[in-house]
Design a protein that fits this description.
Layout: H1 3-7, H2 14-23, E1 25-29, E2 34-36, E3 44-50, E4 53-60, E5 63-70, E6 75-76, H3 79-84, E7 91-94, E8 98-104, H4 105-114, H5 123-138, H6 141-151, H7 153-158, H8 161-167, H9 172-188
Antiparallel strand pairs: 1-8, 2-7, 3-6, 3-8, 4-5, 4-7
Helix pairs in contact: 2-4, 6-9
């Protein structure tokens, strides 16, 4: 039933899929429901069946610093807290009502003990660290927007521009200029 989520990380036998389906938990979360608070240790990874999730920390009472955005058919976790088993500096919350699969750290260890095929779950951890380096250190605002447009255009459809701007680490005004420049370049290309 939930094997498509597992198959996004690699190839698994029918036995592996049965083991996974016994360990994974289905969760429905409401809009704005928090999955992980700052100061709590991340104990699970999640897969989004339906909905949108975001990771953030608070700059002030009403201002968020968006760390990551997640959409349907995507795994997510708080990488630093999960891997080091230290308190999270960020919050994970449901941006919209969402249906998720949850796999605990204990279940991951159990599954790896049952079949080395589950070592493929390491792919979940690689993507989380690459995003931070890629977005926060390497690209101009226009390149960041172009990357999202070409690789994850659903983000632009699922989240408001203020959230996208925070995710890209630019102001909403800069995002507006970037979008105009991007549209102009696409028309003249």
């Amino acid at each position: 039933m939930f094997s498509n989520a597992l198959k996004t990380t690699g190839y698994y036998s029918d036995r592996d899929i049965m083991l996974f389906e016994k360990e994974v938990k289905y969760r429905q979360v409401q809009k704005d429901q928090v999955l992980l608070i700052n100061g709590e240790v991340a104990k699970s990874v999640f897969f989004i069946l339906k909905g949108t999730i975001y990771q953030y920390n608070l700059k002030s009472d009403n201002e968020y610093n968006i760390i990551d955005l997640h959409i349907e058919n995507e795994w997510f976790l708080n990488h630093k807290s999960f891997v080091s088993q230290t308190p999270s500096e960020n919050i994970i919350g449901a941006f919209t009502e969402s249906n998720l699969l949850e796999l605990s750290i204990e279940s991951i260890h159990y599954l790896i003990g049952q079949s080395s095929a589950f070592l493929q779950l390491n792919k979940l951890f690689e993507g989380a660290t690459a995003r931070v380096y890629f977005f926060d250190n390497s690209l101009t605002p226009l390149q960041k927007y172009q990357f999202i447009f070409e690789n994850k255009p659903q983000l632009l459809q699922k989240f408001p521009l203020k959230v996208i701007a925070s995710f890209l680490k630019i102001t909403p005004e800069t995002l507006s200029r970037v979008r105009k420049k991007f549209a102009k370049n696409k028309i003249t290309s």
